[in-house]
Amino acid sequence: LACAALFALSLAQPATRPRYGGTLRVEIRAAIETPDPPVAGHGMPDLAAAFAIARWEAGRRAVFEASENAPGGRPYLDAIDIQMGKSLHDQSIDLEVGRADIVELGPAELLRQPAGRRVWSSSPVRVIALVFAPRVEDARLREALAWAVDRAAIQQLMQRQGEISAALLPQWLSGYAFVFPTASDAGRARALLARLAQGQRSLSLGVEDAVARPIAERIALNARYVGLAVSVTSQAANADVRLVEVRVASADPARALAGLAAALGLPEPPHADSLEALEAAEHTLLQGFRVVPLIHLPDVYGVSPRVKGGPGITPLGEWRFESLWIEGGRP
Amino acid sequence: MTLRTRLLLVVTVAVVAAVGVVELLVTSRTREAFEHVETLRVRALVDQFQSEFARRKQEIVRDVEGIASSETAVSVAIAQDYVPFVNEAAAQAAAHNLHLLELVAGDGTIVSSAQWPARFGFKEEWLVEGGDWKARGAFLKREELPDGYTLALVAVSQTRAGDRTLYVVGGQQLDREFLSSLVMPAGMRVLLYRNLEAQFSPAEMIDASGPVASALALRPLIDQVQNTRREAVGRLGGSGAEAETLHALPLTGYENNLLGVLVFASSRRELVELEASLLKTGIVVAAAGIVLGIGLSWWATARITRPVHRLAESARLVAAGNWGATVEVSSADEIGQLARAFNRMTGELVTQRERLVQAERVAAWRELARRLAHELKNPLFPLQITVENMQRARERYPDQFDEVFREGTSTLLAELGKLKQIIARFSDFAKMPAPEMQPVDFNQMVSETMKLFEPQLAQARIAAKLDLDWQVHPVQADPEQMTRALRNLILNAIDAMPEGGRLTVRTQYVGTGFLLEVSDTGQGMTPEECARLFTPYYTTKTHGTGLGLAIVQSVISDHHGRIWVESTPGKGTSFLIELG
Q1: How much is the ipTM here?
Q2: 8 Å CB contact of B121 and A214
Q3: Fewer CB in 10 Å around end: N or C, chain B?
């Protein structure tokens, strides 16, 4: 398996003696409404080993404090203050004016970052895919849409972030993703649609995440180009096809595939002892075009110059804030 | 209907007609003038809108040129990779308040689209083939959007950087917001039909508040503009205050294709209310004019008809017997001349009447003298003969004188009696007393009188017939005089039938009074005889004084009744008396 590519852009830091401690201010888009802090997944659950929850305001704010009894010793930071439900645009502004230390960066925000801005980026771990509802039974319709999609244009929308892919597992994880064809084929799509009645040539495409809406709009445009009417709606639950994002949760390809299949509602893939078996299993999963992978995107964070140490994320995008400290914090 | 009433009616009708005609003319002319002013106003408003429209076009051209000349546009133009600029159009559009903005590479490839961000990478062939966009200015364009089509006012500007070209295509949708942003005068609204569908679509008819509910009513106007591609005028909402005058303008695109129809709807409320106010004022003025006209007519007709009325009154007096009635002459006009002529006429009538009375009096005296002479001559002749016989007997036959004397005195007494009777009749006529009124049952009076005549009628072989109407009520009358009048009529009838015949006496109820008819079947009379029948001392008989019918007429006249005769020669005569 290919190793994750982890990179960080950093300004040249002045040679000052570190003063450990401080509170790390983090902003995220997600507004987690659960009564208690999440314990599974990435992000806040990753802090559990070194930090303990001190304050929880569902959907708004979470404050973690350094745990004195952490397995690897007490982290440098005193606390982590997480603001939830912040739009990417607001996060970018807060980072710019110094109200936040770590923020998520979308494609547009990434483009607008000043020169020298430190950016942490994970490997492409977010799989963007189309998932058809069970009621869309005609495979020709699903396949036509799959062939109509221009993945290169989607990557342009993402400011060339990530990798376009027709596979579930990213190339860096499986090494065989390139064998799944990504090019669009309008002629094939039209040919498939030609076999359908006019009334069947329409779909509703649900997308809940506003950030992903441009991708949906582009897919609708591609579909219109081949003669398929796709209407974009934010009511994803009732849509014929949904644009979803799932995460690669494991560095083990087989476990990652199983996790993705489960997240996408696909059958559990058979146990694979080899890459060939894994590739065959993935082929089988995607064969009916119930799920059409589009692109794999990384987690991208903008980091304030106050934040020292790091990088604070792993190739899978997990938070590793225990090795960070804030400039000017407690020595 | 009196002359004054007729005059008043005529003048009133004339006044009403004149006022009505004037009102109609004024209303019609006023409406025409208002319509003309309204047309001019709408035209001015249309011109004003077109100025506003042209200003908006200039603003769009300025904004688009501003973007094209910006550093951003230059950066995009010279960029080797357009990906970083894929969302640039949206930012620029927001900054310049444009609904539509596309940055298009020199080969027509869309670099960035504000209205359809997903459309980057597609081609805009029309842009490359378009020619001199700067000279064209802003123009209408049918623009495709993710959810359909829209009508937009767009301008194209070019950014040149070395051998690279970037087209900046920007504009504003002609939608509800655009219409609401237009500065429109009060009472006017602008509607837009976006000619984006093959067939008329009511949903494409919008105004500043959104879709127009009455879009279907505007279809004929839209069709007219679509067919002729020229301005058209119409009306919406009938003729009430809710009505609007419509002025439709065709909107064509850069390829001269009809992309929309702009409809200016100018409320007619002000006009209708003004017309209504004028009409109301007109009606009030007309009513006042009519009332004033009638009042003046009343006064004028009174002035005009007063002399005529006086003339009529005088004529009535003359007709009633006051022949000396005159009319006051108060003017020198025709009425005055008429009054003078009337006075002259009545004066002459009085004179003539006096002359006639004098002549009649003389004639009456002559007739009286003749009648007296005649009546007196008859008894006098036997008197003279008797006296001469007595003288002759005394001289020649003294022995027979006593017998002759006895016979002669007897004759003399008889004739002297006749002379006394004649004198008594004349005396009776002269001394006709005033009637003493009391309720008289005429049916009873007629029955009793006829009984008295039964022997005489039988002797004259005359059959009597009574035909009495028992509805006849007692009437105020003098029974003695009325009995004498009836006797006279019956005697006349008996005299008229020397060879016998039939006498009919009839009473008949006639509403307020009754009719008494005495008819015979004698020889009858000529109309001339009938005309003179009631003249005193006139008679058609060989005996009699000619006073009988004169007395009857006098009695009836004293009872305020009426008597007349109907006679046919050879068939008989009927005397009819009406009393009430």
Answers
A1: 0.77
A2: no
A3: N
